Backbone:
C-alpha cells in the first residue's frame, strides 16, 4: 500500500472514529467503539487480547497501533468522554467562570495561579464531578494531570517540542537517536498535527504582544528565544482573531479544556484507533489492581464510577497483552502497588524510582509601565527562552500567557530547569496508598536555577519579580506543583529498552513514566515518539502467532 493511500485510509478511519466519539457522547454511552456511531452501546467486553490502561499520549499510540494490527483492544479510562455540551452550549467550561466540569471531584478549583494582587480572585466554588483537570497532592509536590478520553491533551498548552538530540541521548543513552529523530519523532509530530505560528502574524497581532515583550526583556539580557510548535490549529486561531471563528485560545480557554482549535488526542490518535474497528474505550473506569492468572494472562480489577464518584460496579478484565498508559503517576502507582502487595512480585526494585518534575518552576515578572503585555492574550504559548546550552545553568523557559482581559504588565513563565534531583514512589501498607518521596529541598534546586536566569533578566531590564501570584505569602516561585510528571518506570531500568516491563512478559509501559525525570522541554512529543518506537518493535516481535 502506498503512503498516500495509507494516509487517505487513515483519514477516512479517523472520521469514522470521530463520528463514534460524537455519537457515543450524545447518547450518554460510557463504552465507545465503532458500533456507537449507530448510537448503540458496544457489547460489554471482559476479555480482550490486549488491554490499554489510560487514553493519554502513551495509551492512544498503543491503542491505534494495536487496532491497526488487527488486535482487538480495550482501553480503560478513568475520566469521561468530553464531547457533550453543557447548559451553556459548550463542552468545556470557561476558565474565568469555571463550573463542575473544570476539576476532578473538587468543591473549589485549584488553579496554578492562585491569586492576583494577593487576592483570591482566581479560584471558584464548584460542584464535585469528574472534571477534566486533576491536581494530585503528595506531601511536598502536587501534580496537574488531565482526566478524560485524551488524558493530558485535553488540558495542556499544546506545545509540541522535540528535545535537543544531545540531551535526548544524555537521558536515553541506549536508544538509537538517529532512528528516533529520523523516524519516530517525525511520525509523532505528523500524527499529532503539529504546526507553527505564522511569524509575520505573530509579529503584528495584539494576541502575542505578551510574548514579544518577554522576548525583548530576554534579548536585553543577551538571551535568545525560539519559536515552539503547537498542536493548536494556528489557521483557526487567525480566524478567531479575524472574528470569523468562535474563540477558544483567544477566549482564555486552556487548562479546563479548549472547545475549538486544539488537536487533542480524541481528534487524532484516538479517533483513528476507533476507526480501525478493533478498539473499544470504556470511560469512567479506574483500574485498581493488576495481577496474573496461572496461565500467564493479566487480570485487572476496575471500579466503574458515576458522575458523583460513587463506585457503581467493580469489574474484572482479562487480557494476554497489557499496555500501561496511565501516565507517570497512574502507571507507577499501579505497578508499585502490584509489586509490594505481591500481585506482581517479580517486578524489580526500579519500579517506582527515577521520578522528577522536569525541573518545573513558574514565576512572574513585573514589566515597566511602557512595556505592555496587552489585555488580549492567546492561551497557546509559542515562544521559549532557550538557555539550555548554558552548561553552568541550563534552563528552557516557556513564555506563558496570563489572559485576564486587562493590561497587567505581568510576564509569566514556566521554567524547565535541569534539576538532577529524583524521587521514588513507595507503597504505604497502613493506608493502602502510594506515596511520593519528593521534598521541598528538591524543588529548591529548580528554583535556584530559574532564579539565576531571571535575576539576569531583571537586572538587565531594571525590573522585579511579582510577589502576588502564588498565594498570600509573597511567594515568587511556584515550587509546589508540576505540569510535567516524568519517570517512575524508567526505560532500560524498570523496563527493557522498548518499554517491556522486566520480570513480567507481555506487560508494557508506553507513557511518561519511561522518561527519567527530565527531558529539557515540554514532554508530550517525546512520550508519543517513544510509544511509537515501542509499538513498532512489540508488534513485530511479541505478537506474532
Ligand atoms: P496522560 O496524558 O496523563 O494520560 C494518562 C491517562 O490515564 C489519563 O487520561 C488518566 O485519567 C488515565 N488513568 C490514569 N490512571 C488510570 C487508571 N488507574 N485507570 C484508568 N485510567 C487511568 O499520560 N506537555 C507538553 O508537551 N506541552 C505542553 O504545552 C504541556 N502543557 C501542559 C499543561 C498542563 C496544564 C498540564 C497538566 C500538562 C501539560 N503538559 C504539556 C504535560 C503533558 O500533558 C503530559 O506530559 C502528557 O499528557 C503525559 O502523557 P502520558 O501518556 O504519560
Residues:
Amino acid at each position: 500500500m502506498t503512503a498516500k493511500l495509507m494516509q487517505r485510509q487513515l483519514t477516512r478511519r479517523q472520521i469514522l472514529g470521530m463520528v463514534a466519539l460524537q455519537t457515543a457522547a450524545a447518547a450518554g454511552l460510557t463504552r465507545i467503539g465503532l458500533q456507537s456511531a449507530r448510537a448503540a452501546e458496544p457489547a460489554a467486553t471482559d476479555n480482550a487480547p490486549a488491554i490499554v490502561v489510560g487514553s493519554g499520549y502513551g495509551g492512544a499510540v498503543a491503542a491505534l497501533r494495536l487496532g491497526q494490527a488487527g488486535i482487538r483492544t480495550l482501553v480503560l479510562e478513568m475520566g469521561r468522554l468530553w464531547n457533550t455540551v453543557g447548559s451553556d452550549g459548550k463542552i468545556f467550561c470557561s476558565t474565568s467562570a469555571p463550573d463542575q466540569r473544570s476539576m476532578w471531584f473538587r468543591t473549589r478549583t485549584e488553579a496554578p495561579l492562585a491569586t492576583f494582587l494577593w487576592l483570591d480572585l482566581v479560584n471558584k466554588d464548584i460542584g464535585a464531578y469528574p472534571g477534566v483537570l486533576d491536581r494530585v497532592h503528595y506531601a511536598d509536590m502536587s501534580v496537574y494531570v488531565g482526566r478524560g478520553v485524551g488524558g493530558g491533551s485535553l488540558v495542556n498548552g499544546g506545545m509540541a517540542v522535540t528535545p535537543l538530540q544531545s540531551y535526548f541521548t544524555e537521558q536515553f543513552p541506549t536508544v538509537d537517536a538517529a532512528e528516533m529523530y529520523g523516524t519516530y519523532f517525525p511520525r509523532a509530530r505528523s500524527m499529532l498535527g503539529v504546526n507553527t505560528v505564522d511569524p509575520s502574524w505573530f509579529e503584528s497581532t495584539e494576541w502575542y504582544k505578551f510574548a514579544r515583550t518577554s522576548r525583548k526583556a530576554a534579548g536585553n539580557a543577551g538571551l535568545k528565544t525560539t519559536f515552539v510548535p503547537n498542536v493548536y490549529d494556528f489557521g483557526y486561531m487567525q480566524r478567531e482573531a479575524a472574528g470569523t471563528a468562535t474563540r477558544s485560545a483567544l477566549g482564555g480557554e486552556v487548562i479546563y479544556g479548549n472547545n475549538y482549535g486544539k488537536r487533542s488526542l480524541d481528534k487524532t490518535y484516538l479517533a483513528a484507533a476507533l476507526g480501525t474497528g478493533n478498539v473499544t474505550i470504556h470511560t469512567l473506569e479506574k483500574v485498581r489492581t493488576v495481577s496474573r492468572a496461572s496461565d500467564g494472562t493479566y487480570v485487572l480489577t476496575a471500579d466503574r464510577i458515576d458522575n458523583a464518584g460513587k463506585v457503581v460496579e467493580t469489574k474484572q478484565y482479562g487480557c494476554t497483552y497489557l499496555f500501561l498508559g496511565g501516565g507517570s503517576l497512574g502507571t507507577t502507582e499501579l505497578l508499585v502497588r502490584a509489586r509490594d502487595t505481591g500481585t506482581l512480585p517479580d517486578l524489580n526494585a526500579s519500579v517506582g524510582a527515577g521520578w522528577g518534575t522536569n525541573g518545573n518552576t513558574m514565576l512572574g515578572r513585573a514589566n515597566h509601565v511602557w512595556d505592555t503585555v496587552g489585555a488580549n492574550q492567546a492561551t497557546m504559548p509559542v515562544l521559549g527562552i532557550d538557555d539550555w546550552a548554558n552548561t553552568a545553568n541550563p534552563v528552557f523557559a516557556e513564555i506563558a500567557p496570563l489572559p485576564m482581559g486587562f493590561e497587567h504588565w505581568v510576564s509569566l513563565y514556566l521554567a524547565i530547569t535541569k534539576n538532577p534531583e529524583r524521587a521514588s514512589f513507595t507503597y504505604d501498607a497502613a493506608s493502602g496508598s502510594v506515596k511520593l518521596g519528593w521534598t521541598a529541598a528538591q524543588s529548591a534546586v529548580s528554583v535556584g536555577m530559574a532564579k539565576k536566569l531571571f535575576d539576569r533578566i531583571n537586572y538587565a531590564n531594571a525590573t522585579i519579580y511579582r510577589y502576588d501570584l502564588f498565594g498570600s505569602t509573597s511567594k515568587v516561585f511556584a515550587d509546589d506543583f508540576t505540569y510535567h510528571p516524568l519517570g517512575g518506570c524508567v526505560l532500560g531500568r524498570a523496563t527493557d529498552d522498548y518499554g517491556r516491563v522486566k520480570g513480567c512478559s507481555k506487560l508494557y509501559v508506553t507513557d511518561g513514566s519511561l522518561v527519567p525525570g527530565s527531558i529539557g522541554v515540554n514532554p508530550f512529543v517525546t512520550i508519543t515518539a517513544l510509544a511509537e518506537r515501542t509499538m513498532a518493535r512489540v508488534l513485530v516481535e511479541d505478537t506474532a502467532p
Observations:
- The first helix runs from residue 3 to 26.
- Residues 138 and 241 are 40 Å apart (CA to CA).
